[in-house]
Amino acid sequence: MVLSDTSIQPDYDRKAELIAFDETKSGVKGLVNSGVTEVPRIFRLSSPENLTSQQPQPTLPTIDLERINEDPIRRKEVIRQVKDAFESWGFFQMVNHGMPVNVLEEMLKGVRDFHEQDTEVKKQWYKRDLSGKTRFVYLSNFDISATHVANWRDSCYCFMAPNSPQPHELPPVCRDILLEYSKQVTKLVVCLFELMSEALGLDPNHLFDMGCAAGLSVVGQYYPSCPQPELTAGTRDHTDNDFITILLQDLIGGLKIFYQNQWIDVPPIPGALVVNAGDYLQLITNDKFVSSKHKVVANKVGPRVSVASFFTTGMMDTSKVYEPIAELLSEDNPAKYRGTAPKEYTAYYGGKGLSPLLHFKI
Ligand code: OGA
Ligand code: NI
Fold it and tell me: Residue of the nearest CA to atom 6 in ligand 1?
């Protein structure tokens, strides 16, 4: 997470409160279950969030992928739309993407069921290790020690690729759907990488062949209802540290993108998926495709559930180096970044207050 909230030193023993919260191993949901009516101070923003949306707003593009493999004219048009969206917004919504509605619904249900199962069973999965060695990790606030404000959110991290987990490494409540969803979302991303490669004027297999689809972490986010939503954040503003994220959100809403100096709502569309470029994509495209800041506001209504599929090997142990794609560079457009290993990048991610990309600028 890239932080923007740099509040002054707290006048209480924040560390002790963070440890006490962590040791409950029952996350924000545990607090809500225990009946909290006020947001504890470890979650408080330095200034309240404005929860009203400014109107009118520009509308995030929705791209219809229907028949792109049968109709070359439509495919060309869609490639143009993908290019425009990644160049200006870094985000778009997709419909008719080929993932069946029942798979989307079951995935949301699987994440919800995981977070709502018996606390004692859930606690067994609580672990502060995102190296990928443990294939399924449940925790709240992975960056808790580095940040000034904890998110009103619990998460489960499922490391699905490279190397598929063994079924017994995944919790029974969401095991089957996780495997099925991962298979389908990977098929979809391969198709997207083809469109994106073409949008960049490259061979259709270029991004796939670079390994952009090789690593997949599926993260099930659970945002419990919040008694004082203006005082905290569901997910603070950040950019994603991956190549691309495919996000499935339920119908509650709250996701916002920073675009043209204002926060724009990403309205839930039944059956749609949200796509966004991550920092590595911005790096390898030499800033042609942008990794935009986004956040999720807290809400009295909840729980809100979302499933983010992060395509990257960044959290796993890899020393492969990524750099701006040579074919995109010229005398007028020299490389803006030096070669960067995802592992090195990850070291700059979290708690630094700036986009880690800046660190790798030439
Ligand atoms: C994320 C993220 C958005 C959401 O997990 O990086 O931006 O809707 N999630 O949960
Ligand atoms: Ni994100």
Answer: 240
